Amino acid sequence: MTYQGRGLSHLALHNVIKDTAQKVNVKDAHIHKFRHFYSVQTINAGMDLNTLSKLLGHSSVLVTEEYQRSMTTAEKEKSNFI
Predict the structure, then answer these.
(1) Confidence band, pLDDT 50/70/90 cuts, at residue 82
(2) How far is CA 15 from CA 11, 29, 67, in A?
(3) Which of 21, 33, 53, 75 would disulfide-bridge 29, Cβ 3.0–4.6 Å?
(4) Residue 81's pLDDT is what?
(5) Is the pTM value of this prediction over 0.70?
(6) Are the C-beta atoms of 53 and 63 separated by less than 8 Å?
(7) Of 37, 48, 55, 58, whose CA–CA distance to 79 is shortest?
(8) Residue 75 parent element (H or E)
């Protein structure tokens, strides 16, 4: 949110991430990486895929399953998915 209480635009959020990443010398920081990180962490915490799918605004739970498929073996073991 902005100081005026309004939501950030996609471009504004992109610029905040880019500027902050440069300040702390992090390369290749993108909005999608935060979204992916959030998704994997919520799966690890036990959130069901249907709920996560709705939170992310996916048209189908099949789209959300891509996050589960992209998890490493260690992440899957931690989440009891294997």
Answers:
(1) very low
(2) 6, 11, 25
(3) 21
(4) 42
(5) no
(6) yes
(7) 48
(8) helix 73-78
